[in-house]
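Issue: copy button drops trailing tokens. Both records pasted manually instead:
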Amino acid sequence: MLILNHNRKVNRVVFSKNGKEILSCSRDMSIKLCNKKSGKELLVLNHDSGVNGVTFSKDERLILSWSMDYTIRLWDKKSGKELLILKHNGSVRGAIFSKDENEILSWSADKVTVWNKKSSKELLVLKHNHQLVMGAIFSKDEKEILSWSKDQTVRLWDKKNGKELLVLKHDYWVNGAIFSKDEKEILSWSDDSTVRLWNKKSGKNLLILKHNRVVRGAIFSKNEKEILSWSNDNTVRLWNKKSGKELLVLKHNRAVRGAIFSKDENEILSWSYDKTVRLWDKQSGKELLVLKHNDYVVGAKYSKDEKEIIYWTAEGEIKTYKLYRDRKLKKEFYPLKAEVESGCTLTKSGEIRVLTKEEWEEKKRRYEEALEESK
């Protein structure tokens, strides 16, 4: 089901807490709030250039956005009124609220900035050797800030005085980093094709996991005994954190943009430049579902109840796909299922033809009707 269309690549999608509304942003310079069920647009907000990201405040009365127009903006969700503009000297790559939402942490160009939300005043500026900052996060108590950059480093800072507490070095650009739950360890990943685990106190490198190309992301499992990573080498990999042993390799046909676990961690959802979203059985590595598109998939996630997959694409579409894990489809609908999941059909002459968008939507509708009738 198509929820809504942007005119260009969708960069980020966020759900409201009750799951009834979807907030999205795009390179078409717009932010859209829509009703998930009907697809009705409830609010449209605009920047002066592509919007890189968007999020809700805790009470969902405010919307925070950041853009290629060098600004961070705060909006009233009900009225759409612009409440605040914070200006950087380059495209803003990210922004987050502090826990009490009195401060905003953002990163752009070569610096990380902490702002007072009420006064718009810069409280702290942290710099990375004149190289692009890729991201930043607060520690749980918000006394520290972790940031990473194209200067090949992950850095830990004292938020109060801006003092640099730790520098961790990769061999090329660092694409991301996270804390372990107890914050005694730091997990980072890089263009140097590695995922690395570090002791936060000593800075000692505890583990190196190797892909064959750029690593785009990594996460811990809930019990932190496993690490899931994905790469431009077309794979998603599951690792044993203690031994570094590779437990599972899941293959796409092009670079993988992202991957997540289901809540029970029995499934892995991944998406790629190969224009597909794929669902995998974590234990066996079996491919359970493939959704194909006309352009690459930017992001995907489960709905709150995990009965649907929501995904968004470079061509500006946001779609949902219902999961029927407990349904047994009648054999007569197997060809229809294959067409929906592959995005292709077999012609009378025996040739394989790619379905048009309209054909795929119609077949998907019929397939979902068949599943609804199944028991």
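Record 2 (pasted manually too):
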Amino acid sequence: MTEPTLLIVTGPPAAGKTTLARRLAIDLSLPLFSKDAIKESLFDTLGTGDRAWSMKLGVASIELLFHTLAWQLGAGNSVIAETAFIPEYDNARFLDLQRMHPCSLMQIYVTASPAILAKRFKDRANSGDRHSGHVDTRLDENEYLVSLRAGKYAKLDLNTSIIQMDTTEAGMVDYSRLLEVARGCLATPKLT
């Protein structure tokens, strides 16, 4: 028997996490739970507002994300969780989740060079493709760079394997290797 696996796709905003997580979800036939997808549903239901409102719904979204992960893992289901998890808050939450619902953890840390991340962040905010509730267009690019330098979106410290995917040059991403490792993690037998 295998225990469920929680694949955690994390890294700074605009690194390419959502794109990668969606592809993994399809290729691995796993459910994907994303903070932004939950948050955008809340925007559509409760309305959009200013930055403070967006942040408030962000807190609610992360709570809903962790509750959903607990339900899925408790039912023995492997899942993918995706967002820019913040180690200061989320390390303990993942470890608590793993204690309550024994599972294997695999962290996929998606990143790129700071200059590329800042450009993507700005381009995404100005593209009009992102849900307007995020109010990204009101965020300062320098504020984003400061948060990167401060390590706000660093790797999670979960005592598990970490696969780093550098998306600075999209053509250099070895997706097939990542998929192979993820499949291996999903097939790991449960220790009894």
